[in-house]
Amino acid sequence: MRVLISGGGIAGPALAQWLGRHGIGATIVERAAAPRPGGQTVDIRGAARCVVERMGLLAAIRARCVDERGVALVDSSGRRLAELGADLFGGEGIVAELEILRGDLAAVLREHVGPEVEHRFGDRLVALAQDERGVDVRFASGRTERFDVVVGADGVRSAVRRLAFGPERDFVRHLGAYTSYFTVPDPGDLDHWFLMHNAPGGRVAGLRPARPGTAMASLTFTSPPRPVSREVLAERMAGVGWRVPAMLAALRDADDCYLDAISQVRVERWARGRVVLLGDAGYCGSPLAGQGTSLALVGAYVLAGELAGNPGDPAAAFAAYQRELGHYVAAGIRLPPGGVRAFAPNSAAMIAVRAASMRMMTRPPLRALMSRQFGKAERIALKDYAVARS
Ligand SMILES: Cc1cc2nc3c(=O)[nH]c(=O)nc-3n(C[C@H](O)[C@H](O)[C@H](O)COP(=O)(O)OP(=O)(O)OC[C@H]3O[C@@H](n4cnc5c(N)ncnc54)[C@H](O)[C@@H]3O)c2cc1C
């Protein structure tokens, strides 16, 4: 079987690795010219932790984990208004026990793919046409090839989804905000805490521990759909105070700036013929739902297992993939109460409400609600797929 995977982020390499263990080779085509750095820490929770354990990667991931001890809301002078330690909710709260920089997780996954996986950077699909026996693909480089199966693991703005399923507007919902992540120098006083500051006008700034000597900044602003750039971001964040002026100074030269809308992706059926979607391309709750990486890792495990278990019958494999994963994904992409408005309130009064509700999260009745929100990471019974090699 020849499998083409579009997208070399998290879902793509995870799938390639599992396919390799089942004895199936794959080609990963990534639009970027080199592995993309960047992204804040992402967490690996619930069933996803079990998947990386089955991959034998838990130790490699732990070795690169960021020591983050909790999240605190601060006012413009840095005073803590509310805090949640990483040990709350059994280590599965807003800050989870396994927090790793997205770029580091992508590197661990890439480093462990077998020799049967071909990585092509700097190319992308521009056309595909399928019949009952395969998919003909044309790449931007001019190359044409035929594959048995094509997997769209190319993120929220998936090209595979656009080519095989339809226009982005049918599947991607703008949630009313834009967010950015980029590296800044370590301010030296984070003490392993993730600090977040809300300012009126739906603006949020965050600063999280990262690699030694650095921190990860995030800047978010509410807005209807519009063109965005670093300049627009700087304009919207002007006057926020706290540590934002230093962040904006670092933004100008940041070489790993990720800037995009906060969006939710919903696709009712993840397969069309021999083309299937995986990770953010097919299901994404946005960073607010906070489970994107876990969904991608578990999705890769199930998709590879079902492709191997249904040789020569991708339709049966894709049906089983959706059946196994459907409920877990539905729960995983659900937004937390209040959505963007609760995360980035407009007024000083609502910012005070946000701090108060964060203080109450550890007490009943909010504690039960939050436990349910975090508990959704467990909502799948992982099948044991027999692998050819471990
Ligand atoms: C640079 C970056 C930083 C991120 N930072 C965070 C973060 O801090 N917090 C968070 O919660 N989530 C972040 N995300 C999203 C997060 O990685 C995903 O939600 C999750 O891990 C699922 O991964 P994925 O592989 O499905 O999608 P992604 O990680 O988005 O990977 C998709 C990959 O496909 C590639 N691609 C896109 N279009 C094409 C194309 N036409 N052809 C070929 N390749 C294509 C992209 O370059 C990317 O490498 C980030 C994503 C990126 C790309």
Write the layout of secondary structure elements.
Blueprint: E1 3-6, H1 11-21, E2 26-30, E3 41-43, H2 47-54, H3 58-64, E4 70-74, E5 80-85, E6 99-101, H4 102-111, E7 117-121, E8 125-131, E9 134-139, E10 144-147, E11 149-152, H5 159-164, E12 172-185, E13 193-199, E14 203-209, E15 214-222, H6 230-237, H7 244-253, E16 258-266, E17 271-272, E18 275-277, E19 283-284, H8 292-309, H9 314-332, H10 339-343, H11 348-360, H12 366-375
Parallel strand pairs: 1-2, 1-11, 2-7, 4-13, 11-18
Antiparallel strand pairs: 3-6, 4-5, 8-9, 9-10, 12-15, 12-16, 13-14, 14-15, 16-19, 17-18
Flavin-adenine dinucleotide binds near residues 36 and 38.
Q: What is the compact description of this entry?
A:
The protein has 390 residues and is of the alpha/beta class. It has helices at residues 11-21, 47-54, 58-64, 102-111, 159-164, 230-237, 244-253, 292-309, 314-332, 339-343, 348-360, 366-375, and strands at 3-6, 26-30, 41-43, 70-74, 80-85, 99-101, 117-121, 125-131, 134-139, 144-147, 149-152, 172-185, 193-199, 203-209, 214-222, 258-266, 271-272, 275-277, 283-284. It has a domain at 3-64 and 100-172 and 263-336: FAD/NAD(P)-binding domain, CATH 3.50.50.
